[in-house]
């Protein structure tokens, strides 16, 4: 089994290959990838994402990495709509489950006009690689398979990599190595664990 550092080091080798950017060699599938990792390595993965962004975006690679932290996007949208402070007060009165459901509705999760998906789509350019982070921080309000399914419908020209604190075996997502998120078949594992 590869160490987390070996796997993290393989990311740059993978994403700098020309065929990665062109999405070739995937049987004409859209380039959606998942980098799954043990949740205990969350801080190490976050640091490495920042390193990759700096190296690629300041280098002469001809493309950029755009990171989208789902938790930060959610907070920004709620704040812009004036809902964030209301959610804090509502949670004290009605509990977390009520706020989770209200937040999903406010973000229009799984709707055609899903605000998270719209936020990402509006900020991606053709020469980008998209990094999706914050998956564990935003659960259970936003689920990773929902983001991937909805994003898959609107973003198909650039590679997308979701950094997933859990296990992805090519069929199902298991968040924190304990919570079965749902089946997802359209993504490839970015770097194998073995």
TrEMBL record:
Top-level taxon in the UniProt lineage: Bacteria
Pfam families linked: BrxB
Name this polypeptide is given: DUF1788 domain-containing protein
Organism: Acetivibrio clariflavus (strain DSM 19732 / NBRC 101661 / EBR45) (Clostridium clariflavum)
């Amino acid at each position: 089994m590869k160490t987390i550092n070996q796997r993290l080091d393989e990311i740059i080798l993978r994403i700098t290959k020309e065929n990665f950017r062109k999405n070739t060699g995937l049987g004409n599938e859209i380039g959606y990838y998942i980098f799954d990792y043990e949740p205990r390595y969350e801080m190490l993965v976050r640091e490495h994402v920042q390193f990759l962004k700096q190296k690629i975006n300041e280098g002469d690679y001809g493309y950029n990495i755009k990171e989208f932290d789902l938790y930060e996007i959610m907070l920004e949208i709620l704040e812009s709509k004036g809902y964030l402070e209301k959610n804090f007060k509502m949670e004290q009165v009605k509990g977390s489950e009520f706020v989770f459901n209200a937040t999903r509705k406010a973000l229009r999760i799984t709707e055609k006009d899903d605000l998270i998906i719209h936020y990402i789509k509006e900020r991606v350019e053709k020469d980008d690689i998209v990094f999706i982070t914050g998956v564990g921080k935003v659960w259970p309000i936003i689920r990773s398979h929902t983001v991937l399914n909805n994003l898959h419908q609107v973003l198909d020209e650039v590679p997308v990599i979701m950094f997933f604190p859990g296990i992805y075996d090519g069929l199902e997502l298991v968040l924190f190595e304990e919570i079965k998120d749902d089946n997802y078949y359209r993504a490839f594992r970015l770097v194998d664990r073995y």
